[in-house]
Amino acid sequence: MSIATATPQEAEERAALISMVRDFAARHIAPVVEELDATERFPEEIYKMMGSLGLFGVSVPEVDGGAGGTVSDYVAVMEELSYGYASVADQCGLVELVTSLLARYGTDDQKSRYIPGLVSGELRASYALTEPQAGSDLGGVKTRARRDGKDWVLNGEKIYIHNAPVADVAMVLAVTDPTKGKRGGMSMFLVDTDVPGVERAYREKKMGQKASPVGGFVFTDVRLPDAALLGEAGAGFSAVLHVLEKGRLGIGALANGISRAALDTALEHATSRHQFGRPIADNQAVAFELANMALDHRASTLLLQRGADLIDRGEPANAASSMAKLFASEAAIRNAGRAVQILGGAGYIRGVTAERLYRDARITTIYEGTSEVQRLIISRDLIASRRS
Ligand SMILES: Cc1cc2nc3c(=O)[nH]c(=O)nc-3n(C[C@H](O)[C@H](O)[C@H](O)COP(=O)(O)OP(=O)(O)OC[C@H]3O[C@@H](n4cnc5c(N)ncnc54)[C@H](O)[C@@H]3O)c2cc1C
């Protein structure tokens, strides 16, 4: 259901969804978040619970095995999960991308093989695009899938891939026709990570979002049946574009959950910490920062809702989703920094929420398209509209 066009019943259902996820985050994520941050373990028990609560494949049609919600629902779920812990929201985002692509391009066999396991929390997914020479510019992808009889043979390396250390299945972008470039020359493959030739290269030590494992894959002569190809040969880059807007909004919403958590922790501290005989919030310098934090969170929310609403109505959302992701992620970094400042020395100490949020926020302007790439998209859209 969309924000602008929701009927009273849809609005009620949406409020119930938000309340359910908020309660889940408070009861099951908040109590373990510091432990997850410290140990960096995969939150297995939370992942399984998310599957049973219908928090995977949120906007994927029911007929394809998803929860049958809207992109607006998905954005709301991502913010609430991330308010609990961004690494948990990362998992929701990954399953959303992979199941959306399966629903759109998959054969009946591919859908029934993967979607039920992914949405129930039995299977773990990876979405593998980035390579040493291909980050912002996917035109640099070198991973190659060659035809060999009826099979494909995959060779190459992927880096910085969420869940690479733990995934059961990876959706992998590879070049299938080097003469054609990005459009027409790339294809997407479903690669079971236990097949011969798939190596999980390493696990990165990250600044934040520590319970979302990130690592690399090396593919050496991985033999894949034709049934591993998602959609048509050559449609890989179109598939990337198909989920780009939803992906950006998802990460924008994740950032917004961090923003709201930063505001709440700062507000709590500012009203309870006394210096010079009064709460520090009674100083206008501190109170105005709280106002700025609320403003950044609210503005992000509205941009995210607008982007989701456009997608739900089937309208172009390219620039709108880039604006939402750009603003919400930069706002999350601002708010996490403000929370650290308002907490004073405590904000710099491990085990204190503001310190974790500061680290967790930092990646949001980089993954799922950097801020510079979002500005490129927005400016190109503006310039094109002037010229058309
Ligand atoms: C924790 C983490 C998780 C990730 N998860 C995944 C995942 O699950 N799957 C996946 O495929 N990838 C993943 N990535 C990779 C991520 O999407 C890339 O890091 C990101 O797209 C940027 O690519 P890059 O690191 O190669 O930087 P580069 O593309 O090399 O960019 C470096 C800098 O140059 C700037 N720049 C580049 N081109 C331009 C330009 N034309 N104009 C202006 N500025 C420009 C960038 O904005 C950036 O500031 C993840 C990365 C991290 C760190």
Structure description:
The protein has 388 residues and is α+β, with helices and mostly antiparallel strands. The chain has 13 helices and ten strands. It has a four-stranded mixed beta sheet. Strands 2-3-7-6 form a four-stranded antiparallel beta sheet, with no helix packed on it. A two-stranded antiparallel ribbon has the order 9-10. Helix content is 53%, strand content 15%. The longest helix has 29 residues. The model has no long low-confidence stretch (mean pLDDT 97). The protein has three domains: 117 residues, Butyryl-Coa Dehydrogenase, subunit A, domain 1; 113 residues, Butyryl-CoA Dehydrogenase, subunit A, domain 2 (Beta Barrel), CATH 2.40.110.10; 142 residues, Butyryl-CoA Dehydrogenase, subunit A, domain 3 (Up-down Bundle), CATH 1.20.140. Bound molecules: flavin-adenine dinucleotide. The site of flavin-adenine dinucleotide has 18 residues, from strand 1, strand 3 and helix 13.
Specify Rg, calculated over alpha carbons.
Answer: 21 Å
Total count of strands: 10
Which stretches are low in confidence, meaning pLDDT under 50 for 5 or more residues running? none
Strand order in space, largest sheet? 1-4-5-8
* DSSP strand content: 5-15%
- Helical residue percent? 40-55%
CATH architecture type of the largest domain: Up-down Bundle
Along the chain, the helix and strand elements come as HHHHHHEEEEHEEEEHHEEHHHH
CATH class identity of the largest domain = Mainly Alpha
Shape: globular
The unique ligands bound to this protein are: flavin-adenine dinucleotide
Average per-residue pLDDT, rounded, comes to 97
Assign the structural class, choosing from mainly alpha, mainly beta, alpha/beta, alpha+beta, or little secondary structure: alpha+beta
Per the CATH scheme, the topology name of the largest domain is Butyryl-CoA Dehydrogenase, subunit A, domain 3
- DSSP summary: helix tally: 13
